[in-house]
Write a structure and sequence with these properties.
This protein has about 300 residues and is mainly beta. The chain is built from one helix and 15 strands. It has a 14-stranded antiparallel barrel. The longest helix is centred in the first third of the chain and has 12 residues, at about 1-15.
Length: about 300
């Protein structure tokens, strides 16, 4: 049974010939409270500095299951005309590991009743693949002959983000360019390893009563070599302190979410994914915990509570 699980993990991480069409970009459920992980144009979209720390354990009890940790901090600069941010992520998927550090920069202009921001992320990823740990059928396949150890992969990502007080919409490509030729097997005909992933996300807040707000949101992910995937979510804010929500990720999972605004500055979030695929036979689901903190002595506390997105 363990050997079968390892084979399944391998199929998720490496496709024969060296092209990976699996989970190359970060997979998180609480993206609607952690926008800069998806889109560099999100940087500086609030009038204060903000930080978040997240851990995700995907497919718990599944051998070599993915785990992800992220840290991000961003805020406005130059009289709030620009935004800057830092993202750090550690992503492990089966036999592959990737530690990435990215600097995000966004420029925004007033447009209508909101702001339009254009952003860029310049990042460096330390990539490792222990191919010798893979369970394979063809032991003579040269693709798996040598491990990849601590290869530095420069990356560039782009995004656009429009937001008003009650709604937002964004498009992004987290990795437009990557200098990844060193991690492509010499026997492969592929021109690149990290493929372009196209994201569109949007959300709206309905302030139903002074003590209840409803926020539907969606994230659509497109990659030419894979089916389109959509996250459809709805979160309810009670008494400007407690978020409760649910979501559906097409072909993958049902998601339950909760967030507690402990203080106007401090937030604690949790998400649980119930797997809908055959992986559920080996896993009890996925867990995600997030801690957020908003800074800024010069910002009135009332402008930070509640924080819709």
């Amino acid at each position: 049974m363990k050997e079968m699980k390892k084979i399944v993990v391998l199929l998720f991480t490496i496709i024969a010939g060296g092209c990976a069409f699996g989970q190359q970009e970060l997979m998180i459920s609480q993206y609607m409270f952690n926008g800069m992980v998806l889109n560099p144009a999100y940087a500086g979209s609030h009038p204060y500095w903000s930080a978040s720390l997240l851990h995700r354990s995907q497919w718990v009890k599944f051998d070599n299951a993915p785990t992800t940790q992220t840290f991000s901090i961003d805020g406005p600069i130059a009289n709030r005309k620009f935004g800057m941010g830092l993202t750090v992520s550690n992503d492990q998927l089966g036999i592959t590991k990737q530690l990435e550090v990215g600097v995000n920069f966004a420029a925004k202009v007033a447009l209508g009743s909101g702001n339009l921001a254009a952003g860029i992320r310049v990042a460096g990823a330390n990539y490792t693949a222990n191919l010798s740990d893979a369970v394979i059928w063809d032991t003579q396949d040269p693709v798996y002959a040598n491990n990849i150890k601590n290869e530095l992969v420069p990356k560039v990502g782009l995004g656009l983000y429009y937001y008003q007080r009650k709604w937002y919409a964004g498009v992004s490509v987290p990795t437009v360019y990557s200098s990844d030729d060193k991690i492509i097997p010499s026997t492969s005909s592929a021109s690149r390893f990290f493929e372009n992933h196209y994201y569109f996300n949007a959300g709206y807040v309905f302030e139903v009563t002074p003590t209840l707000a409803i926020k539907p949101s969606t994230l659509i992910k497109y990659q030419p070599e894979a089916p389109v995937e959509a996250d459809i979510n709805c979160n309810f804010l009670f008494f400007k302190k407690f978020w409760l929500g649910a979501g559906y990720r097409t072909g993958d999972a049902l998601v339950a979410m909760a967030e507690w605004n402990i203080t106007p500055q401090l937030r604690l979030g949790y998400a649980y994914d119930y797997t809908l695929t055959d992986i559920a036979n080996y896993s009890s689901g996925s867990h995600e915990v997030m801690l957020g903190f908003d800074f800024g002595k010069d910002v009135n506390i009332k402008t930070r509570s509640p924080r819709y997105f």
